Amino acid sequence: MSVRLRKWKSKEGKVQEAWWVDVKFQHPDGRVERVRKASPVNTRRGAEQYERELRQALLNGAHTRGAPPPEVPTVKGFTERFLTYSSNHNKASTLAAKQQLLDSHLLPAFGNLRLDRVGQADIESFKARKRKEGLSPKTINNALTVLRTLFAVAVEQEVLQHAPRVKLLKAEKPEFDFLTFEEAERLIAAAEPSWRTMVLVGLHTGLRRGELIALQWDAADLVAGRLVVKRNVWRGHFGSPKGGRSREVPLNAVALDALKAHRHLRGPFVFCDDQGAFLKNDTCRNAILRASKRAGLRPIGWHTLRHSFASHLVMRGVPLKAVQELLGHASIEMTMRYAHLSPDVKKDAVRALEARPRGTYGAHGMS
0.85 cut: is pTM over it? Predict the structure, then answer.
């Protein structure tokens, strides 16, 4: 391909480089046209793609020598369009997280750069700077994921021809806290009567805090013994559960009996205040902290109950695929964090070698 890397020294003596394309094209009338231009994406792959596009434009008669290239906005200039796109395709909590990462990290670093001028060197410098600031790899990766999505939207909306590669940092799998079986019983016993059923249901269904708060009686089938998790709430915004899909969670006898005894006529919400209104996040947070303190446990949150639900299932030998479906995880990789808790996973793995394959030894000349 007719692409090459040009290098030169600036007035300050610094070595600079850019990828250029050099295309010769013969028109039907025999006229030969040569186009030499700098690639808008300063990488070999970007230049090769730009060369193909130039050849296609010449073939279609769409290339006009000297025509000014379309103006590419800065990252900051494109942000409003990106957030509009995100508001149409993301939950309110995801949109707020993107806005926070843009304001705190991405716009200060890339805001004044044109989209087509953000290169891998800029992205690597951003990573190094944030690590020096003490940010965790997970937080940096969250910001990089938003940046990568922003570039993808710019390409989809034909504002940008090519998106630079955004490589994430290697990050350790996050640790999670869960209660032992004995600690879970202590927590239930220590919870205030008005909160005990919510704590128990959390431990026996694995619902997220927002799903527990948004749970309504129309989603609780106390005859068939099941919950349909179809709502979530975040800062007063009601929507679908994380992942955008509802799921069914069977109720065991403990959770079913507790919900039957909890039945009230204060309104549609299963867990609510005295007036029937849905519970606020701070109210729920303080309640679980009080319960854990009364039980003599470390401070925990509602997500600890979800981790405990999954951990207890795996420890009792429930297949990870079933745990994935009960938790509503989009992929099995998210559920694999609990795999090490299975008491038989390693035993079953090595026992697979005990069975002698038929015909193998003779086929390899072994006795």
Answer: no
